[in-house]
Each structure stands twice: as structure tokens, then as C-alpha cells.
Amino acid sequence: MKPKIITFEGIDGAGKSTLVKSLHDHFTAQGLRVRSTREPWELSKVDPDPFIATMQLMIDRRRHCRSLRFDLDFDLILIDRFDLSTEAYQGFGDGVDRNLIGQLNDLATEGIDISMRIWLDLPVDEAVSRIEGRGETIDQNQQARLERVRRGYSSMENWGQLRRLDAFQPEHAVLSDAIALIEEVL
To answer: What are the start-end ranges of the E strands in 12-81?
Structure first.
């Protein structure tokens, strides 16, 4: 049986990595065989040029998807960022042609069947506060990019299996809501 694949999207600071870890622990405790992964997958550095970065991410995604094809021993695969991140960050955030990104994503993912995409929606000012709370700095240009990226995710809200989750809630509420969403496809 093929595993259910759930992807997690959202701006930096939305809590994707924290949520994926908590979900991994939760569903493993429920007796499911769970794999957590993330993108970029093997790419250690993304070029500052948005077009080159897009190409790097697509090559990395293709390799990642090829590895996912052989993960038949799992019931559930949780992916921290996937195809919509490129659409949001490089497309909406940096202005790379979104039609091109869509075509490249189709080629890179090789038809991987995503069961559900969960968008952790968080206001940019809260995301910036969380990021700065980790000791990182965000300048005005980065904040403006995050605004464009969030608007991009918002415009994708009605796409396919994308489900919006309010990431401004307390962490336990975000986890509870995510568990309920995932249980819909298990």
C-alpha cells in the first residue's frame, strides 16, 4: 500500500518544523510507520539569484521525489515544505514566472501523489517576532518578501488539497487541528 503523503507549507516562522516533529511523534505513538522529511532535501545552499535558486530547488525536489517512490514501508510521510513553497517563495516572493514553476514542479515531482497539503497561515509580524526570538534578524526587504509570500499562499488557498491551518493559535491547538486534518485521509 502506498503511504499517505502530507506536506506542510507556510512562511518562515509559522511553525512547520515544530509541527512536523510533533505529528511524527503522535502518529508513531499511534502505531503508524512515519517518515519525516523536508525540503530543501540535499541542497545545502540556495543561490541568491531567484531563477537559479528555482532550478536548484527543482533538481533537489526531483531527487527527493525519487527517494519517496521507494518509501513503501511507511504509512505516513510528512514533508516540511514542498512544491507550493517554490511557487510562493520564488514565484510570488521573487517574481519568477509561476507558469514555469508549475511546469517544472510537474516534471520534478514525477506524479508523486500528495494526500493533503497543510498551509500554516501566520501574520508576517508574528512570524518576524518568532524568527527574531530565535536570534535571527529580518530586514525590511525580507519582511516585504514574506508579505508577498503570504499573499501568494493565500491566493493558493483554494487549490487542490491545500487546507489552511491558523498558526497563530497556541501550539497545542495547531497540533490538534493538524491531527484532525490528517485523520481525514488516513
So the answer is: 34-38, 76-80
**DSSP label of 91:** I
Q: How many CB atoms lie within 10 A of CB 156?
A: 19
Across the beta sheet with 76-80, what order do the strands follow?
A: 34-38, 76-80, 4-9, 116-121, 162-166
* pLDDT tens, position by position, 78-128: 999 999 999 999 999 999 999 999 999 999 998 899 999 999 999 999 999
Give the residue numbers spanning the domain of 144: 4-183
Confidence grade of residue 69 (pLDDT, cut at 50, 70, 90): confident
CATH number at residue 126: 3.40.50.300
Alpha carbon 68 to chain centroid, angstroms: 16
Exposed / middle / buried, residue 42 (Cβ in 10 Å: 0-12, 13-18, 19+): exposed
Within its chain, how far is the Cα of 28 from the centroid?
21
pLDDT digits (tens, 9 = 90+) for 129-181: 999 999 999 999 999 999 999 999 999 987 767 999 999 999 999 999 999 99
Distance CA 109, CA 122 (A): 27
Count structural domains, the chain.
1
Which ranges constitute the DSSP H helices of 30-97?
50-68, 83-86
Are residues 84 and 153 in contact, defined by beta-carbon separation less than 8 angstroms?
yes
pTM of the model: 0.95
